[in-house]
Amino acid sequence: MSLRVETDKETGVAVVTLDRPHRHNALDRTTIDELVAAWRDFRTDDTVRAIVLTGAGDRAFCTGVDRDIDAPQPSSPYSMDDPLLTVGPKANDLWKPVIAAVNGMACGGAFYLIGEADFAIADETATFFDPHTTYGMVSAYETGYLAQRMPPGEVARLALMGAAERLSARRAHETGLISEVTPPGGALTAAVRCAATIAACPTAAVQGTVRAVWAATEASRAHAFAQAPHLIALGNISDDEQARLFNSRAPGTHRTR
Asked: Could you tell me the residue range of the domain that residue 122 belongs to?
């Protein structure tokens, strides 16, 4: 199992932990399938009224899709079988509140999860970045999610700077990506506390409010996602070239702001 689910029946809070610290909690097919199953199960589990999503260890919340995953794509630039499109709670029609507790690095495909959380809390040691452009890939879905939370200029800088820059938790809070910064190790506790408060409220009112918030942004997100397949197909360099760039870039050549 690469996912841990712990439920407190008394508070109604479930904590979902990405449990692949040896791979910086990157998402392989097993983890993706387990996340989808967990979101679907929560829909009909009345003992769970709020969910916290976090990553095991203190080095990373999630570093996106595992590079070892095999994801062959259709030849049409208008179609794409993105393995992460169904990884989030909203993609699985779950309207119970989800709070992300971010510890360590969050990059690339992690924004599918943070983007479908209702809000995020981060340790002050957390960092955020999107390495797509560095490795010759278009950041399309990630920027679609980020644009729901952050000003367009900040989204552009985060995406265009690639692996060269890390967004600090403090700056992520200033730009609206996260709602609270905690001392090191405090994000999970803060997120569980928020989840317990929400779970104590009448369920129908909470889920209706979640749905109302998402209704306000889903049209623009759907429009952005409709453009994503052909932008990626036209802009991505070949897999071999991506691998060459990935292997040639020296780690640690970045700055944090």
From this structure: 3-187
pLDDT, tens digit, for every residue of 99-153?
999 999 999 999 999 999 999 999 999 999 999 999 999 999 999 999 999 999 9
Residues contacting 113, CB < 8 A, separation 6+: 53, 62, 87, 88, 100
Residue 189: CB atoms within 10 Å? 14
Q: Of 81, 50, 65, 198, which Cα lies nearest the Cα of 142?
A: 65
- Residue 121's DSSP bridge partners are 101, 180
Asked whether residue 199 is assigned to any structural domain, the reply reads: no
- What strands lie across the sheet with 60-62, from one edge to the other? 60-62, 105-107, 127-129, 165-168, 255-256
pTM of the model: 0.92
Helix (H) or strand (E) holding 123: strand 119-123
CATH number at residue 170: 3.90.226.10
φ, ψ (nearest 5 deg) of residue 167:
-90, 120
pLDDT bracket for residue 221 (50, 70, 90): confident
First to last CA, the chain: 36
Nearest alpha carbon to residue 110 among 152, 60, 150:
60
Do 52 and 192 form a contact (C-beta atoms < 8 A)?
A: yes
